[in-house]
Amino acid sequence: MSKTIAHLLDEAAALLAAAGFPDPRRQARRLLAAALELSPAGLLAQSERVLAAGEIARSRAMLARMAAGEPLSRILGRREFWGLEFALSEATFDPRPESETIVAAVRERLQGDGRDRRFLDLGTGCGCLVLALLSEFPKALGVGVDIAEGAVRTARGNARALGLADRALFLVGDWAQALAGRFDAVVANPPYIATAALADLPPAVARYDPRRALDGGADGLAAYRVLAAALPALLRPGGLFACEVGQGQAQAVAAILAASGLAVETPLRDLAGIERVIVARGGGSRGAGR
User: Is the pTM of this model over 0.85?
Assistant: First the structure.
């Protein structure tokens, strides 16, 4: 029996509904558009097209993975962030939209003065933060550091794919150890889940994001203490530090940074209204930009 896109969409939506997905038809459309290499509009426009056997098999294989809890970004091996497409790997965290608040915060505070900039991304993963910043600052240079060699390979590949490899350097390292030089902005999305809470994470996170990108130690704040100790030597006078924090952690992270001599701004909220990003400035005012 022949099967059209519309038939397969009905089948996919029913399977995802049975698996407990919210808005299963929308999720099914996203998956089938990716499986058939169509835009969402193209999927609707071709809804009565009869599918080839290979298209059906590929779509059903991807559907089975999604129904089992694997995020679509992991199935596809890519994620859109800041309007750019980033390849993912098993060694990288899957960036979420709320992390774009970091990029927006740095852009707002540093754009417009025409100066060359130097950015540092600690725990870079797929490179999304520093590469998004380089896309906004055409004269800037960026360095990304990650402890996982596989993540660094992925980030380098993303830099090449985005045409930014000549301005981006990715290194394997343990946070800021062995780094020299000062930067206009340092960004980070460190692990901030308390170790005991890891068991309660949704399967889509726990199974597919690297544990080292999630585990923030006993209280979830271990990485911030390491970063705060390193920042005075990394930031130019008046330079920016912008980092993501977990829900309910903003005040604790602000206190850690203030204890290292940084001037902390009011926490920034993400689109869900959660205090998500802390911005702080290093000592002095030279080179602060605004």
Answer: yes
Does residue 41 carry a pLDDT above 60? yes
Task: List, in sequence order, every beta strand (DSSP E) within the chain.
Answer: 78-81, 84-87, 118-122, 141-146, 168-172, 183-188, 235-244, 263-264, 268-269, 275-281
CA–CA separation, 241 and 283 (whole Å):
12
Residues 149-192 have pLDDT tens digits of: 999 999 999 999 999 999 999 999 999 987 888 999 999 999 99
Rounded to an integer, what distance in angstroms lies between the CA atom of residue 208 and that of residue 116?
37
pLDDT value of residue 248:
97
CA pair distance 202, 288, nearest whole angstrom: 40
Report the distance separating Cα 200 and Cα 269, nearest Å: 24
| DSSP code at position 166 | G
Give the tokens for residue 68. 């089992």
CB proximity list for 37: less than 8 A, separation 6 or greater: none
Burial class (CB in 10 A: 0-12, 13-18, 19+), 12: buried
Please state the separation of Cα 40 from the chain's center in Å.
23
Joined tokens for residue 160: 């090449």
At 59-102, the pLDDT tens digits run 999 999 999 999 999 999 999 999 999 999 999 999 999 999 99
Tokens 């923030």 correspond to what residue? 216
Of residues 165, 174, 163, 123, the one with CA closest to residue 144: 123
3-state secondary structure 114-163: CCCCEEEEECCCCCHHHHHHHHHCCCCEEEEEECCHHHHHHHHHHHHHCC
